[in-house]
Amino acid sequence: MSVVNDVHSRLNETEVDAVVPVDSLESIGAAIDRARAAGRPVSVAGGRHAMGGQQFCSGGVVLDTRPFDRVLSLDEERGLIEVEAGIQWPALMDALTDTPWAIRQKQTGADDLCIGGAISANVHGRGLTYGPFIADIESLIVLGADGVARTCSRDENADLFRLVCGGYGLFGVVCSATLRLDRRRRVERVVRLAHTHELEELFAQRIDEGFLYGDFQFEIDPASAGFLQHGICSCYRPVADDTPLGADHKLSSADWNRLLHLAHHDKTRAYEVYAEHYLRTSGQVYLSDRHQLATYLPGYHWDGSSEMISELYVPWPLLADFLAEAASDLRALEADVVYGTVRLIERDDESVLAWAREPWACTVINLHVEHTPAGIERAVIAFRRLIDLALERGGSFYLTYHRWATRQQLLTAYPQLSEFLDAKHAHDPGELFQSDWYRWLRAAIELEAAA
Question: Is the pTM of this model over 0.70?
Fold first, then answer.
């Protein structure tokens, strides 16, 4: 037996039968055959940053795809690259360095994340006019529960394509993906301080001016009037290809460690230091792919605490109202906000379990969680309240993080869940591919309905 956990929250400690590194289609098939013969469920893990238990199944076999990381082909005319699912963002970017092509978007905040996980969670970045990651996928090779490897795209096995993208590994193992690339450009960061009431108009203006990326990082001190209201708006616009990149005013690992300490112990000073840094970098020029890389410091907490994330979606006209009420409620609940940001997302009308059902404002909130029953319960109450605030405004929330949403919250945000679970049973009637997240979801939706 082995014990595994996610990297960020460390709240998903799971005892599994075995962790099996895989590096080929054949090794994946062999591992699945052995698990099936032993009556063990199979889950798939890569960078292990999902926080809802999607990559682990108690008593099951975990396929570790990180060795499965080759670049298979590059079509330089069409801007398509085929990679194995275990490749992580830095290696993918390095493979494109000597070409005119670049990734369109990736998750923010960390880089050691596998492409297979990005597909399974249908992630997004900070593009101003982008939809979720499914829009960047040309095709997939998926090994199903029946042992057959299938090409899945919008034209071939389209139903499976729509299920696998955002399907959290429940419909088979993503073996390879052909990704759509963009031409690499140089972009200039433009920074200003803003209030939430300005954001809808400000981002619309930035989009009209041709900006490609952007976000709004808000104050985190509940004692400040600017808590969740005032923040740093950073957007990136294309500039001429011969524009010098200039000096890169990056924060060092030591700087990030200091900021993390301040975010826990002196939140006002943390925001001041962070805002000063961003304002100092306004006008700096980056490559459109490399500016999406981040510094992530794993294990910066003592064993008894960590951060948990939630991502909430609301219509843009209701964002300021949502954040104002969220600030009031988080103060009342004495929730410990460590970081927060607002981004944009366009509608996803392709994946079955689409989280971006509309063009929404996305609010990401990191809460500090003490790993005690009382500490976890405080986080559960706070996140459920945030979910309610989003749902009251016709919005939704992201499933990739905790397993703390109620059944009613799940069904309100994801009315297609019954369809999703029916498809799971049809494609994998023996439930070979499972996770603790799946077992929780199935119990919440199906078993409670039957009770």
Answer: yes
Written as six digits, the tokens of 253 are 């690992």
352 in any annotated domain:
yes
Asked if residue 298 is part of any domain, the answer here is yes
Percent of the chain residues past pLDDT 70, beyond the cut: 98
Contact 44, 65 (CB under 8 A): yes
Instruction: For residues 108-117, give the mean pLDDT.
Output: 96
Is residue 16 within 8 Å of 56, Cβ to Cβ?
Answer: yes
Residues contacting 14, CB < 8 A, separation 6+: 3, 4, 5, 53, 56, 57, 58, 436
Q: Residue 176's beta-bridge partner residues?
A: 84, 141
Choose between 299 and 3: higher pLDDT. Answer: 3
Question: In this prediction, what percent of the chain has a pLDDT beyond 90?
Answer: 94
By residue count, the chain amounts to 451
Q: Give, to the nearest 10 degrees, the angle between helix 319-332 and helix 373-392.
A: 160
5 domain-assigned: no
**Residue-averaged pLDDT of the chain:** 96
Task: Annotate 262-324 with DSSP letters as a single string.
Answer: HHHH-HHHHHHHHHHHHHHHTT-EEETTGGG-----TT-S-TTEEEEEEEEEE-GGGHHHHHH
Strands 360-370 and 305-314, bridge-based pairing: antiparallel
Number of domains comprising the chain: 1
Give yes or no for a contact between 365 and 386, defined as CB atoms under 8 angstroms apart.
yes
Which CATH number characterizes residue 399's domain?
3.40.462
Q: Which domain holds residue 208?
A: 186-409
Cβ neighbours of 367 (radius 10 Å)? 23
State mean pLDDT over 19-40: 97
How far is 322 from 387, CA to CA, in rounded Å?
11
Q: Is the pLDDT of residue 80 over 90?
A: yes
Confidence label for 302 from pLDDT (cuts 50, 70 and 90): low
CB 176 within 8 A of CB 184: no
pLDDT at 448 over 70: no
Q: Tens digits of per-residue pLDDT, 119-142?
A: 999 999 999 999 999 999 999 999
What burial class does residue 331 get, using C-beta atoms within 10 Å of its C-beta: 0-12 exposed, 13-18 middle, 19+ buried? middle
DSSP code string of 371-439: SSHHHHHHHHHHHHHHHHHHHHTT-EE-SSS-S---HHHHHHH-TTHHHHHHHHHHH-TT--B--HHHH
**Position 388 in a domain:** yes
Q: Which two tokens stand for residue 438?
A: 């799946």
Task: Determine the residue type at 39.
Answer: G
Q: How many CB atoms lie within 10 A of CB 408?
A: 12
